[in-house]
Each structure stands twice: as C-alpha cells, then as structure tokens.
Amino acid sequence: MLCIREAIVVEGRYDKNTLSQVVDTLILETGGFQLFQDPERMALLDRAARRRGLVVLTDSDGAGFVIRNRIKGAIPAQFLKHAYIPDIYGKERRKRRPGKEGKLGVEGMPPQVLEQVLRRAGATFLEEEAQAALSGPPLTKGDLFAAGLAGGPGSGEKRQALLKRLELPEHMSANALLAVLNGCYSREEAEAFISG
Is the pTM of this model over 0.85? Predict the structure, then answer.
C-alpha cells in the first residue's frame, strides 16, 4: 500500500474502491455531476486541497473532463495536481456494456497504471524522499506553438500524436498538456517530447 500526502478526488464509489486498494490516503468522491449542485461537497474538496493538496483523478472521457474543469475553476491551482489515466478501450467487469466513449474509467485501471499516473502527477509519496527539483524554467505556450503543437495548422493532429505517445487522454487541451509537461518532467525531458 502506497502512502500519499495529498487527498485524491474521484468521480464515484467504484473508483474509490479501486483506488483504496492501491493507496492509503483520503479519497473523496464528486458523486459525478452531483458536484455541480452540492456547494458543501465543493467546500470539502477546497478544504482538503488547502490543508494537504488535492490530486484530481477523473475518467478520461468527456464527462470526466467536465468534472475536472469544474474543480479546476473552483479551487486555486497551487493546491491541485492532475492525474490523467490513459485512453484504454474496454468495459469494466461490473458493467453490461462499455461507456459512451468505450473507454475504461478509473475503476477499470490496473493498480500499476494508477500508481504510474499518480507519480506522473507529482503526488507526494511519504515513504520516499522528496523529488529532486525540476531543472530549468517551465515550458510556455510559445514553446508549444514553436513546436507546432498549438495555434497553427495541423497542431491538433500533432498534439494528439504526442498525447498518444505519452499515454495521456485525447481530450486534453494544449494548456492541460503544458501543465503535465511542466509538472511531471524536467525541462530537458519536456523539450525532448515536444521536439520528437
């Protein structure tokens, strides 16, 4: 069992059950779209984020991104870390048919994938030493533009290819990709990814 300092927010109870078999930390649920009508639940997420940090771990489908963006809009960025599960097509065992987009959600991810996405998001693993500081200034939107990954002809296709190579969800915007590159990799690693 991995001990993590930050709290983690997931969409529902099945996601929470799966994650609780991998990590030992506070795991909170949004209740799906109930979050939009529940100011108390959002206040709880905000309080947890300010006290210990919050890792947002939603499904990689469109609904998961709507929920993620709601949390991102309500809680200051310095208290949030974003973990993205890869696009893996299939269906969870408990369901009769795949979801609308045919992708596995958090509950369908193997434990090693969940650990990997939490590490990639920069979650603080308590039993390990603090991660070495990332070298160099962070990438900017201008760097993505210069690499042809944002704001130009064909940039969407190039960005999709990079997202696939990095095993990140296809719905990620250029800004979300930039946040992952700066938050999870050194400047040199990030530059290698966008130039490759």
Answer: no
